[in-house]
Amino acid sequence: MSDESSNEAPRTVRLDRELVRALAHPMRNRILGLLRVYGPQTATTLAGRLGVNTGATSYHLRQLAEAGLVIEDDSRGNARDRWWKAAHQGTEFDKAELLDQEPELALGFLHGVGQSYAENIFSFIDAVQTMPADWRDASVLSDYFFHLRADQLDAMMQEVLAVLEKYKTADLTAPLPEGAEQVTVQLQAFPRETR
């Protein structure tokens, strides 16, 4: 069944300059990520996860809703609690196009993305000591260095993305299969500054 016939939002939204503007604040990027991973939440539950006050999360949720990145979950809540959910499961964007159109905005957005990635890594490091041995052994925190041309790096990344696509979960908020955990795979590939 196609997205249109099921009345569901597309799984991925392509970011344009207006959507990047809405996500340029790191808190909004984090809120959207939490809604995608953990499913619908209230401003209060998000505030608890983020360690901020409810007023801040409410404000940022309204900004995300205005941009169409989050929507109210009408199936939950009551007159007192508004539940929010991500309108899309993922985002994609053309870095070159955004950097040409709005360089400062694009760099701010990319810095926020990088900050989120760094926070994910530090959370893993903080938890690794108490993880079950099989999860500790299966986890990877590593980097590799190559001498490549841009076209070779692009080809490598296409191959890696094809492998990741095989394991992609349709709905991150669905109940976990027995023995499964939510797993994040962060991927960065870029030329290093040479000296």
Gyration radius from CA atoms, angstroms:
18 Å
Strand order of the main beta sheet, please? 2-4-3
The CATH class label of the domain at 12-131 is Mainly Alpha
Q: Please give the alpha-carbon distance between the first and last residues.
A: 53 Å
CATH architecture field of the domain at 12-131: Orthogonal Bundle
Low-confidence runs: 1-7
Structural class: mainly alpha
The share of residues in extended strands comes to: 5-15%
The chain-level mean pLDDT equals 87
Could you give a short account of the major beta sheet?
3 strands, antiparallel
| Element pattern in H and E | EHHEHHEEEHHHH
Q: Give me the oligomer status.
A: single chain
CATH homolog superfamily of the domain at 12-131: Winged helix-like DNA-binding domain superfamily/Winged helix DNA-binding domain
| DSSP, total strands | 5
Number of helices: 8
> What best-fitting shape do the alpha-carbon axes yield?
globular
Q: Helix amount, in percent?
A: 40-55%
CATH fold description of the domain at 12-131? Arc Repressor Mutant, subunit A
Keywords: DNA-binding, Transcription, Transcription regulation
Organism: Kribbella aluminosa
GO molecular function, one term: DNA binding
Domain HTH arsR-type: 18-99
